[in-house]
## 1
Amino acid sequence: MILDGKAVSEKRLEILKERIEESGLYPRLATVIVGEDPGSKLYVRMKHRACERVGIGSIGVELPEGTTTKEVLEAVGRLNSDPDINGILVQLPLPAQIDTTRVIDAVAPGKDVDGFHPYNLGRLLAGDPVFAPCTPQGIMTILEEYRIPVSGARAVVVGRSIDVGRPMAALFLNADATVTICHSKTKNIEDETRNADILVSAVGRLRFIRPEMVKTGATVIDVGINYDEQGKLHGDVDFEGVRERAGAITPVPGGVGPMTIATLMENTFKAARLEACYNGTVL
Ligand code: NAP
């Protein structure tokens, strides 16, 4: 079975659009981008387009390549105190001169729709998340939509980054899976991956997951974004080989990627609802 993340994201965005209309709220997302990286600019444009589609207002703060940490912190500070902004997304990676950790820590936790602030990561680890990072949360949505059981499953996550691997493992644990996290120092990684009922690869290496690393019938989720010599986009998984063994598999493109953006929209609406709750105005 091919897990069609594009179709799931379309469905979720349509539902979200209706929910936003019904709520009477007008959520607003601010994006912050530093420099001219074409990939980052493309992602930010896609996020703004998704906002427009579902009825979320969006503003873009664009800062030049040479911007200092202090200047980014000031921009984030202005958005934190702007009552018209519900969600703040700082597009990563930031240029090398900027202290990314300080910037992430500066985003108000209630507006941290990316879920990278230590408060939100802590809530996630405590089993009581407010905003979970969009990529792993989007993966949970795909599994839910295709009714793939997580409770009791052996979930193996390859990669331990803050944006994917670690929060993915926490979400699996919160959903009662038995979780293993692998990384570059893991010995005999195939002994771990072959045990997986659900295998998530977030490494960033072409053809990293080969068929012999996958248990027959497993669900394989490919987070990787890699380009081959011809400039063609692939994930981490040897898709043609692994699909013969897997029970279910996400393609690249059209798998995890679209779910990341749909989840960002859902998180932004959640931020607006939570704020409305605190203000006592709606809900
Ligand atoms: P990252 O921060 O570079 O982390 C990569 C992880 O892979 C690290 O934990 C690293 O281990 C591990 N790793 C590297 N080589 C390995 C090896 N030989 N064996 C086992 N583990 C190894 O990357 P990321 O931000 O998590 O992203 C991972 C991939 O997903 C990238 O291709 C990225 O572009 C893509 N991505 C896609 C989306 C989406 O929406 N589709 C979103 C985010 C990221 P160590 O910790 O030991 O170094």
## 2
Amino acid sequence: MTERIAVYPGSFDPVTFGHVDILHRATLIFDQVVVAVLDNPLKHPMFTAAERIALMREALDGDRRVVYDTFDGLTVDCARRAGAAAIVRGLRAVSDFENEFQMALMNRRLAPEIHTVFLMTSFSNVYISSSLIKEVCRLGGPIDDFVPEASARALRRRLTPTTTEAAP
Ligand code: PNS
């Protein structure tokens, strides 16, 4: 039987419990899920693609159905390279929908054989986004309920000034 492969593309800067939730749901449907980390310096990510993958690996604790790739071109090209039949995207709120719908239709136009599958995150994750968590961390708020331990550690190292750094 042929393996059902899906690509889960994103910035993952860094991985949140929302991403982990979607990834877990995707592994219940597909035999293999390729996490495709966007490696585009023009987007000014906080973490390099290698760092983002390392944080995801730690969060996923070696799930063998999950593999990792980076890409800097079209998502559909990445999906084709991986032999994927589907692109997985997470939906949180209605506000996500318009942009996601536009991307899904463009991707279908570019690669009609690849289907976008939207998965809903659990209710407790609907307001979590990497950018919001970065802001909370930067302003000294607690982030442990929103991101895996490795992400929280990495964010605090990057964003919370140490006593020495804060000294004039
Ligand atoms: O985690 P994000 O930032 O919401 O992920 C967005 C991503 C990487 C999925 C999106 O920017 C993307 O697909 N980029 C690749 C460029 C592309 O394929 N564009 C044309 C289709 S819309």
